[in-house]
Amino acid sequence: MNPISVPDAFGNAPPRSPCVLCMKSAQGFTLQLTEWFTWLNIKHNPMLSFSMPRGGEAASLREGDSFVLAFPPAEEALRYRAGARSAFGEELPVGTMSFESDGLSLPIPKGSEVLLHCTLAGAYNYPFKKVRIFNCNLEQALGL
Questions:
Q1: What angle is formed at CA 132 by the lines to CA 41 and CA 100, rounded to 5 degrees?
Q2: How many other C-beta atoms lie within 10 A of the C-beta of residue 6?
Q3: Neighbours of 46 (CB within 10 A)
Q4: What is the mean pLDDT of the chain?
Q5: pLDDT tier, 63 (very low <50, low <70, confident <90, very high otherwise)
Q6: More confident: 8 or 109
Q7: What is the mean pLDDT of residues 6-35?
Q8: How far is CA 67 from the centre of its chain?
Q9: What number of helices (H) and strands (E) belong to the chain?
Q10: What is d(CA 106, CA 66) in angstroms, rounded to the nearest whole number?
Q11: In sequence order, what DSSP letters do the residues of 18-72 get, joined into one string?
C-alpha cells in the first residue's frame, strides 16, 4: 500500500464522513457502513476512531484484527448501511472492486478515494448509545 500524507487523508476522508468497514470473516467478506468516523490524538498517539452498532459485525472484531476502511462517495457508502456479504468464491457484491495489499485481499466499495489498512488497537462500548467505539493507530493506517 502506498503511504498517504496526513493532509491528503484529512482532505479526502474528513471527520464525520461516511466510511465502509471492509473485512474478511469466516464465511467470506463483509462490507458495513460505520455510524461515524473521526481522527483523534490520544496521549500524543494519533488514532482514528469509528463506531458501529453493538452486536453484528462489531461483536466479531477483536484487538489485532486487520481490515480496511474505505471512503467512497457518500451515496455509494450509504448502500452498505445494511451491510453486504459475499461468501468465498461468490461474485463480489454489486458496486465493489477488489483491493489487495500486504496479503489482505478484500472487496471495497466502488469509487473509494482513500483506503486505510487498519489494525484494531482497542474498542469499548459507548455508555449512552448502543454503539461500540473502535480505535486504530493512525500512522499505521496511513502507511507511514
A1: 75
A2: 13
A3: 16
A4: 79
A5: very high
A6: 109
A7: 77
A8: 6
A9: 4, 10
A10: 11
A11: --EEEEE-SSEEEEEE-SEEEEEEETTEEEEEEEEESSHHHHH--TT-EEEEEE-
Question: How many Å apart are CA 96 and CA 79, to the nearest integer?
Answer: 11
Cα–Cα distance for residue pair 142/136, rounded to 1 Å:
11
Query: Looking at residue 13, what is its pLDDT?
Result: 59
- Between 40 and 23, the more confident residue is 23
Tell me the three cell numbers of residue 94: 454489486
Question: What separation, in Å, do the N-terminal and C-terminal C-alpha atoms of the chain show?
Answer: 10
Q: From 36, 35, 112, select the one nearest 68 (Cα to Cα).
A: 112
Q: CA 54, 60, 49 angle in degrees (round to 5)?
A: 60
pTM above 0.85, yes or no: no
Burial class for 41, CB neighbours closer than 10 Å (0-12, 13-18, 19+): exposed
Domains of the chain: 6-141 (2.30.110.10)
- Nearest of 104, 65, 96 to residue 80 by alpha carbon: 96
Residues 59-76 have a mean pLDDT of: 87
